[in-house]
Amino acid sequence: MQLKNVPILTQLKWEEALLRTKHDNWCLINQGSPPAVVLGISGRVDELINLNYFYQNPIPLIRRFSGGGTVVVDENTIFVTFICHASQLSISPFPQHIMQWTEEFYRPIFPTHPFQLKENDYVMGLRKFGGNAQSITKNRWLHHSSLLWDFCYDKMQYLSLPKKRPHYRKDRSHLDFLCSLKDFCSDQSKFQDQLLNRLEQKFSLKHCSINDLKEISQIPHRHITQEIFLDFL
């Protein structure tokens, strides 16, 4: 499912519906979401968000249904999500096994660059360009990634330096820790074409429409994804 300009809140709600109500395998690719800050299911706003900056520059604050850390997203973020039935892929439904599978999926796209999976991040060398989060149920698993085609340093001020962070990051600021995919891939359309080529190598593809996702989202299911509203000081 290739999406364009779909807000991340809407995308996450569709993903939650696909995980909880369907039995087949899905991949969603989206780019062009308006700016937002997205927290994992157990993330604490007071620990992870720079509230002084947030109150001065409010944008949507969203809690997703999956684990993982806090990310700032905007029009230059590319989202790639896999939602799979455990019995249909030869992958043990455990976080590290899923991460290793995705590393193998992405590696041929960057044959001449220092791409690797570092702890739970996609990196070039020691700089992160991709954050990941997962949700695993009895028979299904979801792995979604936010890939920085580019990023605005000012927006990174929404985030506090988390107490729990990758060991390889140490105490580096966002500017020293992050990198942009545009510095390694010359064309965003070409990058997305390479994603599709990798999918075609792994799966038999059927393209779906937004109407399909809208209909699936109406099937009764458990809802966790929501926007967070804070009282302004």
UniProtKB/TrEMBL annotation:
PROSITE patterns per the UniProt record, alphabetical: BPL_LPL_CATALYTIC
InterPro entries the UniProt entry points to: aa-tRNA-synth_II/BPL/LPL, BPL_LPL_catalytic, Lipoate-ligase_2_inactive
Short name of any one Pfam family annotated for the protein: LplA-B_cat
Domain BPL/LPL catalytic: 22-203
PANTHER family on file: BIOTIN/LIPOATE A/B PROTEIN LIGASE FAMILY, BPL_LPL CATALYTIC DOMAIN-CONTAINING PROTEIN
Entry protein name: BPL/LPL catalytic domain-containing protein
Species in which this protein is naturally found: Protochlamydia amoebophila (strain UWE25)
